[in-house]
Amino acid sequence: QQRRSVTSITCRPHKNQFLSVGEDNKILLWDSKVAEAVLSSKQNFCSFSAAWQSENLFFCGLEDGSVQLMDVRKFGDCVMEHTGLHKDAIFAMSWGTSSNLLATGSDDGKFSVLEVINEKL
Prior knowledge:
Structural class: mainly beta
Strand order of the largest sheet: 1-2-3-4
Largest sheet: 4 strands, antiparallel
Radius of gyration: 13 Å
Distance between the termini: 31 Å
Number of helices: 0
Strand content: over 45%
């Protein structure tokens, strides 16, 4: 369970699972079949938004305006990071599955689009 505000929930593709992030620096993977978190990771940062890139990879939008790509098979490990994208926290993100584009929106009032090629931003 998140101990502070849940800021984003996103459904895992092709699974009955959901990912939640929040102000308590936790990332939780929930399984709807058992109605509980099956994986939990305490981070050194606060994630305000999340979006799945594939069945095993997901993005987190961070409080410092950067984006991390993480692998659920190594839960909590960052695969890659893009820093300096925004000046403030990323509160919204969406993955375009057919275009390989990640759109982000921030508290700085800006909208950014990143192209992801071979898991590189």
